[in-house]
Model the fold of this input.
Amino acid sequence: RAGFILLWRGQLEQSSFTLRVENIIRAIGDSASWFCLLLIAFVCASVLLRYVAGVSSLAFDELQWHIYSASWLLGFSYATTKRSHVRNDILFNKFSKLTQARIDLYSHLLLVLPFVGVILYHSWSFVEWSYLQNEGSIDPDGLPGRWVIKSVLLIGFFLFGVASLVRVIDLKRVIAGLKRGVADVC
Done:
């Protein structure tokens, strides 16, 4: 499992709460990864329909970007739980484990969580308006229910915020262990 705190006399694992939350987010991310195969199938079908059968559907094209958006929005919280998100590893790897943990902690507290808060705050009315208007595609052949994909924006950033909060909790435990000199980050 990722995120262990190793003690020199045994192991202190993540708290059961943070582990459960991360497992839920990872299950959602694993499910969202299947959207990529679905997207490949839709793109191939779209190309075949367009160039072999001479049929083109705007709804089909819109569905492709809906699937792509959902996979990305539901997947980036997964990357946070797996510690596979983008960061500047050129400098990061040269720091001590304590400094790395502090950089991660302050990155989440000062950058990620405020950003997530702003996105959630502003996207709520965006999604609400779309739902109340039953917004659909502006094209007559497009998909109805545009609010569905807009709702995924809220869900994705909510999950990202939860993943970041869980990471903050774990980082505080890691930093406390490193300060005592009894823990190493795995």
Q: What stands out?
A: The first strand starts at residue 5 and ends at 7. The first helix runs from residue 16 to 51. The CA atoms of residues 174 and 180 lie 10 Å apart.
